[in-house]
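Narrative of activities, Objective 1.

The group set out to show that a structural description can be obtained from nothing but a protein's sequence at a throughput compatible with the screening campaign. Below is one input-output pair from the validation batch, recorded exactly as produced.
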Amino acid sequence: MKRTAIALMILSLPLLACNKSTPEPAPAPKAEPAKEKPAEAPKAAPAAEEAKAEGEAAKAEDKQAAAPAADGVQELAIESVGNEMAYNLKELKVKAGGKVKITLVNKATSEAMKHNIVIVKKGTSMKVGQAAISTMGVPPKTADVLAASDIAGPGKTVTLEFATPPAGEYEFVCTFPGHFAMMKGAFIVE
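Output recorded for this entry:
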């Protein structure tokens, strides 16, 4: 077997263990039985309270709707999550018509964590991601790809501006080799 074929097989495997962005909750302290006075509810440790608050904030931040700018361009911002293969958002929404501008901030520090954002037809993110392996993340020029940003190195920002596609459901994905299996979300045009 050629090395290229082996590399393609390895890169297409899911990397589930690499994307644990939610901390495990700390176990709640056990309440002691009440004696003469009713016992107060046990208080969670400060770390557990912080983890719970972060989890709730993350759920609220999973989605972003575009804010129209003065020139009518709908603007969205998305970030990578540190040195993980993850975006901070799972869904982006825009209104049909006009243009959309997406800013991707790569929050990684590791040189292996280069990212981009590619808007594709629904159900094609895996196919597009696999096709981009041989080009070091540059997506193929096919009808499945609606728009694609440049690749952002660690600590860099890229901007993607394109005409809003017709109303419907699409996907966004990072096509840097090996990232497409985990770094994706819904791109909804209303």
